[in-house]
Amino acid sequence: MTEHFHASADVLGExxxxxxxxxxxxxxxxxxxxxxxxxxxxxxxxxxxxxxxxHYAAMLRSGRVxxxxxxxxxxxxxxxAMVDADDGLGHYACYRAMELALEMAxxxxxxxxxxxxxxxxxxxGAYAVKAAEAGMIGIVTSNSDANVTLFNGTKAFHGTNPxxxxxxxxxxxxxxxxxxxxxxxxxxxxxxRSLGLPLPPDVAADxxxxxxxxxxxxxxxxxxxxxxxGFKGAGLAGMITILSAVLTGAVIDPRLIQMxxxxxxxxxxxxxxxxxxxxPARFVGREAFDGAMQDYLTxxxxxxxxxxxxxxxxxxxREWKTAEQRKLTGIxxxxxxxxxxxx
Length: 343
Prior knowledge:
The protein is built from ten helices and 13 strands. By secondary structure, the chain is α+β, with helices and mostly antiparallel strands. The protein has a domain at 70-285: 2-Layer Sandwich (Ribosomal Protein S8, Chain: A, domain 1), CATH 3.30.1370. Keywords: Oxidoreductase. This is Ldh family oxidoreductase. Belongs to the LDH2/MDH2 oxidoreductase family. Pfam families: Ldh_2.
């Protein structure tokens, strides 16, 4: 597709929220989900942006996720807690878990919250950024259904298993890392299918395990590092499975119902998340932390680039730049999502 339709964040937010409400979502669920989807669309992570509202609305209608979940939180120690998401959409549970982690971190310096009986939560950076906006460091992980092969493996085993970390920077937007442990997110494969675009090389394989750039033939992803160094991504994916699922009581990746499973749209999936908040004032101290972050980023951005006319960037720099650009140009919307939202 050579031309893209663009819409403002306000319009997209209204249409997305209304679509979720029309599908039966509670006001709290619809608001949290819309907020997380817009975060991804605004910073350029379109694979996890408003396009996912189509799937979420279908899952609400089918009964796989509850329309009005009753979240249950339990403090298990001064700095630890669990959230039972009651089989609702993961965005609502993750925002609540981060709120709880921040409350504990303000008291003890650290808050760690496990989430169970949840579902897909979109881009995990949406929740890590909430910590940075509160002046704390946020770390968020989530497991997901198996669609990434192991290093030298012949079938999918781990999920894309994202991890995000956000850190506050005085007077600037947060330092932000938001990444999958696979070569690319599988939602990007679905986006490329919608757009009719080929995949990058060395990121996906077909059902027989052969590398492919055909988005329609892609059956599984390669772990981060690709064919040569995928053991690194596979190891990170395992770490996230342990934190998000084994530690919380959620279902491990190879036993999870596929997100796009069409034969069973009624059974909840029990995805897990793990959320940490850290209060810098309880470690090195606020003033020292702010000064060191400024010094670190000043030195980092001063490193010469190998590309003439360009500069090196810290994690988050590209995303925040994209967000500023999209305030002016609007957010691109793929044809399927545009049709669903009646744009």
